[in-house]
Amino acid sequence: MKIKRKIEIAVISDVHLGTYGCHAKHLLTYLNSIEPKKLILNGDFIDVWQFSKRYFPKSHLKVIKKIMDMAADGVEIIYITGNHDEMLRKFSNTTIGNISIVDKMILDLDGKKGWFFHGDVFDVSIQNAKWLAKLGGYGYDLLTLINRAFNWYLEKRGKERYSLSKKVKNGVKGAIKYVNDYEKVIADLAIENGYDYVVCGHIHQPKMEYIENKHGKTMYLNSGDWVENFTALEYQFKRWKIYNYNNDKLAPFAVDEDYNNMNIKDLIAAITIVDKHSK
Ligand SMILES: [Mn+2]
């Protein structure tokens, strides 16, 4: 019998299923080692931009099957959309069984307020977004519109859409400043809105840190990614921590025995065919 770690909430982001960079096997091992009440997929879970039929290996299908099995076992799955899976934003606020799709979410965590979103809407205007914080609750929604309009304009002109995470990843000059600005703007907006925690992803930089300004403070949390860092955020016993797969000595014991005998066809069937007799 496998002993799984019980966690109240697990948050993962930037898995990028369907790309060569995604370490699906690591993620599967992690998911097999935990028993969360809630699992939050905070954006860029499936990389629809780079999706092609040529590359979607067995281990990536297993991750999807695992998530569906968790949902069937009563785990509440919250899929927050990101920029690489923004096509799913069409289905925002849809709920199917234990799985729901949203753009952003607010949770009450033992009397404290947590704000969850992917974070790509902060790409466009991080340099001069200070005034957006002053708009409080409207700030995030306004940024979403500006970001959308800006990318629409770039696409119209045949240019590549703006990607902050790509800049950071490629170590473009000033990358550290981009990261700092991103964290600062998000924290400012969270403080302005009275959130105790703000939980995002997108820039692939795991972090847990109190950020303070003259109006107050908030805890900034970033779940990192499953391309380079293999990190997650876990909430248990009224506190957050960063899980780091590279430091987890138990990892080799949580293998995916259950799915090992399944071939690709079985896996696809398990994911796509809904049993008419169930429920
Ligand atoms: Mn992203």
Automatic annotation (TrEMBL):
One of its GO terms (molecular function) is hydrolase activity. The keyword Cell membrane applies. CDD domains: MPP_YbbF-LpxH (cd07398). Keywords: Cell inner membrane, Cell membrane, Hydrolase, Manganese, Membrane, Metal-binding. It holds the Pfam family Metallophos. This is UDP-2,3-diacylglucosamine diphosphatase. It comes from the Bacteria. Its EC number is 3.6.1.54. It comes from Thalassobellus suaedae. InterPro entries: Calcineurin-like_PHP, LpxH-like, Metallo-depent_PP-like. The keyword Protein transport does not apply. It is an enzyme of class 3 (hydrolase).
